[in-house]
Amino acid sequence: MKKFILLFIVITYSLIMVSQNKHADNTLYPTYKGLIMAGYQGWFQLPEEGVKYPDEKNIRIDMWPDISEYEKTYPTGLKLSDGTVAEFFNSADKSTVDLHFKWMKDYGLDGVFVQRFFNRTRTAETRKKSSNVLAHALKAASENERAIAVMYDLSGLKASGEDCSSIIDDWKYLVDELRVTNQEGKNTYLHHNGKPVVAIWGVGFPDRPYNIRNIGIERLIDFFKNDPVYGGCTVMLGVPTSWRELNENCINDPF
Prior knowledge:
The structure is a single chain. The protein is α/β, with parallel strands linked by helices. 29% of the residues lie in helices and 16% in strands. Strands 1, 4, 5, 6, 7 and 8 form a 6-stranded mixed beta sheet that branches. Strands 2-3 form a two-stranded antiparallel sheet. A hairpin with a 2-residue loop joins strand 6 and strand 7. The chain is globular.
C-alpha cells in the first residue's frame, strides 16, 4: 500500500509539473538539425525625435537596400543623386516584417533568431517598448511557416558587477504576454530535443566588459533548463569561433 501511495504521489507531482509549463507541446520545427537560420535584429526603426536613420552623420551600412517591394517606406536624412529624399524601410512596421518572412519562405530560409539585446530587458517599460518587432515576427513566422526563436545578446551588460537576472523577467514577459513559445495559429517556435530553444550570445569574448563568472550566467541557464513554468528549454550559447582551443578570439578560461 505504501508503494502504491508513493507511486501515486510521484505521478501526480509529475503531472502537475507538466501542466504548469507554458510552452506548446508541438511545433512545425521540432529540431534545429539541417535548418538554415539567420539573425533578425530589427534595428532600423523610426526615432522618437529627429530624422530617421541613416542621415549625413550616421551611416553604418555597406549598401543601400532595394526598397521597391516594400509596402511602406519612410524618409531619411539623405538625398539621392537626383535630389529627392532617400527612403528606407522601418523595421517596426508590420508590413516590413511580413515582407521579410515572405522572402524567407520564397527563397528557402528556414527561419530566424530574433535578437534581444540586454538593455531591452532591464525594466518593464523597456521590455514592452522593444517588443513590437518580435510580436510582428511571431505572427509572420506562423503565417509563413518559418522557424523562430529568441536570442539574448549580452551586449550592454555593464562591467560594474551587473548580472543578467533581468533576462529571467524578460523571458517570463515574452512567454506570458507575447506567447513566444505558444503562438496563435501555427506554432513555429524552434525546438531541439523536444524543447524550445533559447540562445544566449556573448559568452567567452575577450572584448566584453563583463566577467562571465560573476554575471549570474549559471543561474540563468538553470532557469531556462529547469524552471517548472518557464523552463524546460534547450539552451544554445553564442561563443567565439576559437572556443575549442580557447585562444585567438576566445578567453582562455575553461569555465
